[in-house]
Design brief:
- By secondary structure, this protein is an alpha/beta fold.
- It folds into two domains: 150 residues, HAD superfamily/HAD-like (Rossmann fold, 3-Layer(aba) Sandwich), CATH 3.40.50; 110 residues, 2-Layer Sandwich (Hypothetical Protein, Haloacid Dehalogenase-like Hydrolase, Chain: A, domain 2).
- The chain contains eleven helices and 14 strands.
- Strands 5-4-3-2-1-12-13-14 form an eight-stranded mixed beta sheet, with helices on both faces.
- The longest helix is centred in the middle third of the chain and has 13 residues.
- It is globular, with a radius of gyration of 18 Å.
- GO terms for molecular function: magnesium ion binding; phosphatase activity.
- It comes from Caloranaerobacter azorensis DSM 13643.
- This is Cof subfamily of IIB subfamily of haloacid dehalogenase superfamily/HAD-superfamily hydrolase, subfamily IIB.
Length: 273
């Protein structure tokens, strides 16, 4: 098959357990680009975090960020698509989370809002200490999340809710799922994400392919978690990592090796090289 686009997830896929891109994975994507194949990073992360890794790859790539709520070319800040959560829904989400004493953070394309440094926000805070100013993630500590929307109304693409208690997570997820204007998906253990209704990596990938005039049959999509399912199902060739969730493996056309064993490289070696 003459593939024209590769959409690759970051965490658990392109990145190993140390949040690094192996030389084999990096070279595989570079070779694909040299063959005229468009490489697309597709992640649940905030855009600025994904941009850092896109620069490391040394290739020009559009980025699907925030689980598909934001698509942008990082090298010239060209926004293809955005689908933020309605501010009214944001305030309703915040109320439910605060009433149930949940940790959460939310973000637009470049600013990470949180009430406390914990879980991922603490991880990014420490990560910032080692980065150049242009690569740091803007983290804003806020006392009153609802007040932020009354004063500023930022474009929020995604909420992340995290807790070590899975029963508590499921209980709160059940309450929030009654809001028909939002979509909920899991992208990592001990957490779930909230986006606007209809937002997914698959929908974003479809929109990008329409812009680039590429058919779904000409697409390879590689991922490991539930938020990757939609793009794996959309692609002509859906690839699940060896460390992927079982449901993702069932939907995939191919199962490759794990993210710690250069699974992206090994899959592309068979399909493209």
């Amino acid at each position: 098959m003459n593939y024209k686009l590769i959409a690759v997830d970051m965490d658990g896929t392109l990145l190993n357990s140390n949040n690094e891109i192996s030389e084999k994975n990096k070279n595989a994507l570079k070779i694909a680009t040299e063959k005229g194949i468009q490489v697309v990073i597709s992640t649940g992360r905030i855009f600025t975090s994904a941009r850092f890794y896109a620069k490391l790859l040394g290739i020009v790539t559009p980025i699907i960020a925030c689980n598909g709520a934001y698509i942008c070319e990082y090298h010239r800040n060209n926004v293809f698509y955005e689908n933020p959560i309605n501010p009214v829904d944001c305030k309703e989400i915040i109320k439910v989370l605060e009433d149930n004493n949940m940790y959460f953070h939310f973000y637009d394309n470049d600013t990470f809002y949180t009430k406390e440094l914990n879980y991922n926000s603490l991880k990014y805070y420490n990560w910032n200490k080692e980065q150049k100013s242009g690569d740091k993630i803007n983290i804003q500590l806020i006392d009153d999340a609802k007040k932020l929307f009354e004063e500023k109304e930022p474009k929020i693409y995604k909420f992340v809710i995290m807790d070590d208690d899975s029963d508590k997570l499921n209980y709160v997820k059940g309450i929030l799922s009654k809001n028909k204007n939002i979509g909920i998906v899991s992208s990592w253990k001990g957490s779930f994400d909230i986006m606007n209704k209809g937002v997914s990596k698959g929908k974003a990938l479809e929109k990008l392919c329409n812009i680039l005039n590429i058919k779904s049959s000409e697409v390879i999509a590689i991922g490991d978690n539930y938020n990757d399912l939609s793009m794996i199902e959309f692609a002509g060739c859906g690839i699940a990592m060896g460390n992927a969730e079982e449901e993702v493996k069932k939907k995939a056309d191919i199962i490759t090796d794990t993210n710690d064993n250069d699974g992206v490289y090994k899959a592309l070696k068979e399909l493209i090289f």
